[in-house]
Amino acid sequence: MKLLFNSSFNLDKMAKHIPLLLLLVWSIPITAQSLKIDSLKRLLEQTQEDSNRVTLLWKLAEQYEFFKPDTTIELAQKAQLLATHIKYIEGESRSYAIMATGQYLLGNYTAALNNYMQKLKIEEKRNSVRNYASALNNIGLMYILLSDYERALSYLYRADSTITAVGGVVKKELKNNIVINLGETFYKMKNTDSAKHYFSTALKIARENKNDFYGGLAQVGLGNVYAQAGEDSIALKNYRSALPFLNDGTNNDVLCETALGFANVFQKTKMPDSSLKYARLAFEIARKDGFLSRELDAANFISRFYKTNNKLDSAFVYMDQAVMLQDSLKGQSKTREAMIISTNEQTRQTEIAEQKLREKQTRLQQLQILAICIFIPTFFLLTVAVSRIRIHKNVVRFMGVVSLLLFFEFLILLLHPLIEQTMHHNKILELLVLVLVGAGLVPLHHKLEHIVIDKLTTDKQKIKEEQEHWEESVSEVQENIKVENEPELLMPFPLPENVEIKTSSSITNVTEDEDGNN
């Protein structure tokens, strides 16, 4: 089977035959897609280096998945590097997944597996069961594509047990994906009984959920398994049951696979006309939609059919078609390999450029913090020095308040990144933590403000009083010195007897009469 994508995307133009395995991706109509790309680009121009920018980057990367996977990888890597730098766990996890999807679409399964492993490491430390199970499922898918079926089963079993334990919406959403992947793994291993079990389980779940899409996939899988086991009549029954879900024009790749299934079964049951009819149907659909690997399979089948029936001219025509298709696929394979090499180098250069940018930003931030650390105590010391000179106490009060505000805001500045990291950029939790921090810091700020301002202004008042007292003492001493050094007064005319003369000092001079009496 083959991975189903939006019909606007032709996977065969980028990769060889890929089995129908359910990678958890999203597709968006092209018309709305271009508008959304423009909108995201405009928003990116306005955002800073924060979690919002990470979100915009991975959302933009998603839009390019099905027609420019190399761009998807580039944008997702930028999102991942930024998310890692700011310790935004959710953004880092999503970025790894989208990068892996782009590499998967290019056929670089090893790189995709590595990124899904990175996502799994992140999800193991988080509480999102859905994301954890999704990562396990996609790792299992990569191992199937790398033909490592035992490891694929190990991860798919873990995904299945995880969603079974949690139940609810997560189980309903992912169960069919995982069970069909398990069925496809056992089909590739030619373990017929287990493959039947899982495809039958997937069909039962699809019917319970009234999901025709998964029902059709499960029946195609059952048709393949029964055909592999030689139970042709049951295989035909399942193929026929799947057809109504495949004739809507959106699943032509799977329709090609089903038609070839019909052709093989009819050939084994000695119904050559029906066999040729369905083989030609597969060939025409594949040629029309550009499914080169399906077209090659159909051309080889028809060539062998005509050769078996001694129609060598017709056999040669389809053999020639098969050769040309092989050349085309080889060319595409080389192109894809070149794209992988180019993408890997682009990824490396992007990582180097981002690392240099982060180092430059880190140095700038460190210098800014150093400057703040120097400025705040310097400003406080200046405030203390100002409080010692003759200046209005309101100026001292203002400078003291500013010093404390700078100190406490600097504390918040240092705490905020730690809070973001601890709360995993959950804005609600960040708000609650900041409220709690504020509830502790605000009273402390007011108390310290009262103590410091009172200390500064009180010291200033004491200094002022001491200065005034000293000035008064100096003035008094100077006055006394002046009186003691003052010359005796000369009278312009004789004073009457018994007249007392008082100096500016407290000394009283009494004149004597001629007889020497006082």
Describe the protein's architecture and organization:
There is one protein chain. The protein is mainly alpha-helical and 518 residues long. The chain is built from 17 helices and 2 strands. It has helices at residues 30-46, 51-63, 69-86, 89-105, 109-123, 129-145, 149-166, 168-188, 192-208, 212-228, 232-242, 252-268, 272-289, 292-308, 312-386, 393-422, 427-484; strands at 500-502, 508-510. α6 packs antiparallel against α7. It is elongated and about 145 Å long. The protein starts with 29 loop residues before the first helix and ends in an 8-residue tail after the last strand.
Average pLDDT figure? 78
Distance between the first and last residues' Cα: 144 Å
Q: What is the global morphology?
A: elongated
Into which percent range does the helicity of residues fall?
over 70%
For the biggest β-sheet, the strand order reads: 1-2
Helix-strand string: HHHHHHHHHHHHHHHHHEE
Low-confidence blocks of residues: 2-21, 25-29, 501-518
Count of helices? 17
> How many strand elements?
2
Give a quick account of the main beta sheet: strands, pairing sense, barrel closure. Answer: 2 strands, antiparallel
Radius of gyration: 44 Å
Q: How large is the share of residues in beta strands?
A: under 5%
Determine the structural class based on helices, strands and strand pairing: mainly alpha
